[in-house]
Amino acid sequence: EHMVESGGGFVQAGGSLRLSCTVSGRPFNFYAMGWFRQAPGKEREFVATISTSGTATSYADSVKGRFTISRDNAKNTVYLQMNSLKPEDTAVYYCAKSVLSSITIYSTNYNAWGQGTQVTVSS
Question: Is the sign of the CA dihedral 17, 119, 34, 113 positive or negative?
């Protein structure tokens, strides 16, 4: 698969950004999708996941209520709407394609990754 992310950037605390990830290759709607992030000096961590139909989602506690994951299967695209951003959200954000159709928070269940997009939140 080829996965292209966009939408990262620089924003002040309290602001919003929307990340997009467009996937080419295997049928997009067969697989759950996820977003992960990696801050400098830290390990990659789970952010959000969405099932094939979009009816099931799961979020890390740190972003629950502020971030929303969604997908448009007709456009082979998954989104991450990020509101009320905090400086601790600063990281490189990666979209990922799962090997499963159901949601999963474990990175070992994802077999394709985007190149990453930088999100920087200033205080």
Answer: positive
CA distance 44 to 46: 7
pLDDT score recorded for residue 3 = 92
Q: What percent of the chain has pLDDT over 90?
A: 93
Q: How far is the C-alpha of 96 from the C-alpha of 111, rounded, in Å? A: 7
- Report how far residue 67's alpha carbon sits from residue 119's, in angstroms, rounded to the nearest whole number: 14
pLDDT at residue number 26: 73
Burial class (CB in 10 A: 0-12, 13-18, 19+), 50: buried
Alpha-carbon distances, residue 84 vs 15, 42, 50, 72 (angstroms): 5, 22, 21, 24
Pairing of strands 9-12, 117-122: parallel
C-alpha span between 106 and 21 (Å, rounded): 19
pLDDT in tens, 15-34: 999 999 999 977 888 999 99
